[in-house]
Write a structure and sequence with these properties.
mainly alpha; about 80% helix; about 0% strand
Length: about 300
């Protein structure tokens, strides 16, 4: 009994530490970012304040996370059916746990904690599938975006790298490294029903369209007047290149902001507007979900043996 109480106290300290660290990193990045001119930002917000406009932009954030929740619910059905509310706990709780880990790696462990230890490998594998399809779409749309913007050399380079990677993968698919091989990985992927894969792809496309258009409408809200195709191509290129760089979730806006500056400055967009839009995207799609996810982290109860 004493050991159980100790475990409970230890678990509470771990959960509280995760939440406090999340808020500490978020606060630190917002406070210490020299590129953010808060006076100018709040003046512009006051000038353009619109309750319906705020709701409209928030609806994209809700849709973005909801599609991710549906994606996870769909994939986890391969192990066992879960409700939307349970999927919400797992997705938002894991997001909070992964915010200060490289490339959100803590998210994998966070989701695994909601399942029996025997299913840890399967949960991590399903999360890899969940994130993998989103990355593949980011590469496809990003390459198209770069080509549209006139960066044909970059686009051809990416296509070439993908072809070489696929060729090497095909030639070495039977090669085993510590008992694992590409052939075994493909076999595991094929074990998942095609209906689950199709739904996963459909939801991933929907999610990509949602957050890329939220970015687009934020630029419109800041009076950036560029052709739709040019804007969407730039956004696709930004997401692809930013996703290719190693980063922490709490630094996401800084990475995307830096990449966005490269493309949008060439199109004549004011530097501080690009930085603020990248920060707003991060706030709407990372900070707000982490705030909600903090509640689920604190409420989390493992299955005691």
């Amino acid at each position: 009994m004493k050991n159980l109480l100790r475990n409970k106290y230890f678990l509470f300290i771990v959960k509280l530490t995760i939440v406090l660290l999340s808020f500490y990193f978020i606060y630190g990045e917002l406070k210490n970012n020299d590129q953010l001119d808060w006076t100018k930002f709040f003046l512009l917000l006051e000038e353009k304040q619109s309750f319906l406009g705020i709701l409209f932009l928030l609806s994209f954030s809700v849709a973005n996370r909801f599609l991710e929740i549906l994606k996870w619910q769909n994939l986890v059905s391969f192990i066992r059916p879960i409700s939307v509310s349970e999927s919400t706990k797992q997705v938002l709780g894991a997001l909070t746990a992964g915010i200060f880990t490289p490339n959100g790696l803590g998210e994998y462990a966070g989701k695994a904690l909601y399942f029996d230890k025997k299913k840890t490998k399967k949960v991590i594998f399903l999360n890899l599938i969940c994130n993998g399809i989103q990355m593949i779409l980011t590469i496809i749309f990003g390459t198209i975006g770069l080509w549209t913007l006139g960066y044909e050399f970059w686009a051809l380079g990416i296509i070439g790298i993908c072809i070489v990677f696929l060729g090497i993968s095909f030639l070495t698919k039977s090669l085993k490294v510590k008992g694992y091989s590409i052939e075994k990985l493909l076999s595991k992927i094929n074990e998942i029903p095609k209906t689950i894969h199709r739904k996963n792809i459909f939801l991933a496309i929907g999610r990509y369209l949602v957050f890329s258009h939220q970015y687009y409408f934020l630029f419109l809200a800041f009076d950036v007047d560029l052709p739709y195709l040019t804007m969407m191509a730039s956004i696709a290129a930004v997401y692809f290149l930013a996703s290719s760089l190693p980063s922490f979730q709490f630094l996401d806006f800084a990475v995307k902001g830096s990449v966005a500056l490269f493309f949008f400055e060439k199109l004549g967009v004011n530097e501080w507007i690009v930085v603020f839009i990248s920060t707003l995207m991060w706030f709407l799609n990372v900070v707000l979900p982490v705030v909600i996810g903090s509640y689920f982290v604190l409420k989390f109860k493992p299955k005691w043996n």
